[in-house]
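Hi U.,

Before I forget, here's the chain from the pilot set. I'm dumping it here mostly so it's searchable later in email.
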Amino acid sequence: MNRLALGLIAGLASLPAFAEEPVAPKMTDAERSAFRDEVRAYLLENPEVLIEAMDILQAREQEAALLRDVQMVSSLNDVIFNNPNDWVGGNPNGDITLVEFMDYRCGYCRQAYAEVAELIKTDGNIRFVVKEFPILGEASLISSQFAIAVLQLHGPEAYDKAHDALMTLRGEPSPESLSRLATDLGLEAQPILERMNSAAVMQVIQDNHELATQMEITGTPAFVLKDMVMRGYAPLDVMRDFVSDARS
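Structure:
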């Protein structure tokens, strides 16, 4: 009985799809009922079998998800890591590239902000790419539009400062607050505000949303490193392990 129940739970999935096995005779209704009762009684007496089966199923699902990520990153490699519309920081010649999909109004992105900066600074050999991915409403969108407009008009150094300022901005972004922010950065505000709604800026955001959909990224932050995807916030020590695993 033990072998029969375990085979029912864990063994059927491993049979070849087109195995040429003799067809078992059909059970009568009485035999089927007795069989079900016997299996049920066994599982009630040995519930750990169900836990073991669920662990196996979860492991297989995780392996399948990892394989999907590897295939997705491989097929989208250039647009993920080498899109000319993205800002590149850290060490541009680093031995590994970390990509972050982020939203300025995301609490977890703000929590990760200082830790990612610490990771890049202490490692010294990480090329860092930011994907503007506003998903939390109008304030998120306005913030990304401002950052992208700064990048397109004034280059990566100005974007770096704008990115830092937006990550720590208190209150809601508005034309007035963003004008003050531009002035604080030593930039002329009006051209940036006018650029924010341009087709060039909106195309970057649209492209990032389409890429995220293809990669099954639905929240922020999300990180891509080599052929791995980490969806969600992770503390600094986990991020360091993430980098170490990618290098190895």
